Structure formats: C-alpha cells, structure tokens
Amino acid sequence: xxxxxxxxxxxxxxxxxxxxxxxxxxxxxxxxxxxxxxxxxxxxxxxxxxxxxxxxxxxxxxxxxxxxxxxxxxxxxxxxxxxxxxxxxxxxxxxxxxxxxxxxxxxxxxxxxxxxxxxxxxxxxxxxxxxxxxxxxxxxxxxxxxxxxxxxxxxxxxxxxxxxxxxxxxxxxxxxxxxxxxxxxxxxxxxx
Length: 192
What we know:
VC0467-like, ten-stranded mixed β-sheet, 192 residues, alpha+beta, globular, 10 strands
C-alpha cells in the first residue's frame, strides 16, 4: 500500500518514556481540549499530544471525522476495502499524508513510533496492511497532523488555550466523536 508519510526524521526526535503518567505535557502524552474562547481552526477540538525528545510535540485532532474512507483513498488496495470507518482530519500539516494510530500492547513492527504506552503511529504500508488485518477495530486513520516547535505548546497553555487531561486511548479511538468536545470541556471546566 502506498501510504504517504511525513518526514521520517521526525522518528529520530521522539523519545518515549514507558509508563509515564499525568497531565504534564513536557513528559507524558495528554489530551488537549480547546477552551470555549479558542476560535478558528481549533474551535471545539480535542487533540492528542505527545512530547518529542527535542522539546516539541506531535499530535492530532481526535474529533474531526471526514466523509472519506480508506477504500475511497485507495480503491485498488484490497486491505483498505475492509476499513469502513471514516478517515479523520488530524491537523493542518502533512495533509498529503495518511497514517494509522493503533492501540495494542506492543509495537506492530515496521516503521512505527510509540505515542503512548499502548498507542503506536504506523508509517509504512506493509505494517498498515498488517494492522488492518489484525487490529482494524483498534485503529484510526488520519490525514494530517499537528507539530509544535519546542516551547510552543507550553506557550499556548500559558495563554489559556487548552484544558489538559491525562491521555486516554479509549477517547482517542472512540467510534463516535459526536459531543466529545462538549463532554470533555464540561468535565474540564468543572475541575477548575
């Protein structure tokens, strides 16, 4: 499967600390919930974000399904025909890239990056095919992503753009994201 991928140099910059927990964006994966006053592209979004070894972050929007499926993107590819869920808009960068995020206890191999203890970003076609065959129900496909330069996410937090919650793979891979922002924003606002 010809899956376009973002720059592989990104993989070298990721340093995953196994078992890290908590809502500290500098050391652990987190969920970011846009505060109600945040407008434009990120209005009403829920993001997954993970620190990179260089002080930056990688992430994607988890509540923006598109109307496109993998079978539409790759009509000649047999494994893609088995994926009926929509592809999600992960962010404004690398919109020409399709990648998979899979939940499983260990890496599926190939070109993957650990996003969290139980989530892996899959970047090569053979591994995506294997994930489709073995873990289709615990996988989400994204077009695009978000990258924060070193210190950029911390600056956004200091300006009050996001609520920060502990990472939760069940939320990242939730089948229906209808009402997800309202649910998490409401929960976050009550915790203040």
